[in-house]
Queue: 2 jobs
Job 1
Amino acid sequence: MPTVLISGATRGLGLALAGAFRGAGASVFSGARGMVGAKDVELNVRSIPSCEDAVRRVVATDGGIDILVNNAGVHLGGPVASLDQDAFKETLDVNLLGAWRLTKAAVPHMRRGGTIAMISSLSGLVGLPDDGAYAASKFALEGLSQSLAAEVAPLGLRVLLFEPGRVATEFAGVTDGLAPDIAARDIVDAIQRRDTPFRNPIGADAVRVFEALGVDRGERSEALVRAVTGCDWQPQPVL
């Protein structure tokens, strides 16, 4: 039974992911700013001590972590030239540095064969008007994840990126689109497969964007990284 830690898991897609993982038989720890359920862990991704404490509580109970899902996020809309500096910093702090902080805390306690899943967005592939702050955070998350993939491969860990399209979670005001439980099930199914590529569209609209942009699922980028550095994204096999 794999142990899963999910940030931002008390509502929206995070809540749906927790339910989908539990339905698949996993031991799920939901990271939350306030304790809600028996297996919730207090987690503020803007704080390194909070991330470290959350990981320690999971490890104390289950001995390690198999799947880390960096899902916590905030949205800031508005024209780039009109953004409030502090609000812009908060967006980057949660969406980018929050994923970095929790990953930094979790990696030493992850079991070989484990997965670090980053919940990105189509905004990490194309920047739209009035979405520059969110796009900046997700473009940066995509780049961070590429570097991380090569760095943790020797530890037997892999990194997967997920780019959902419109999901009806009310996040950023979206009330239509793919049902959260369907999006969550697609993500969980992908994590459970060993042949899942690095970058993954979630939802029909996301697939259309991937096709229109000719998005690299990871193969071309991995080949370039290998050619330049000799590093391989593919984790060493679990013995």
Job 2
Amino acid sequence: MINVLVRLELAERQRKTLLQARLLRIDGHLEAANGVQHVIAGRLVDLTDWLLGLDVRSRDFH
């Protein structure tokens, strides 16, 4: 598991992408200490368009 840290300045600057993207790429750098890993976000990229051709069907396992 990796935590993503989005600083306030970045969140304000890329608010629309942060709140509306269904698939999000996070560019940044990795910090690891004491078994905990964090990605410090530097840029957010909306990749929602990648989901457009995806055929997702619900499966009933009953």
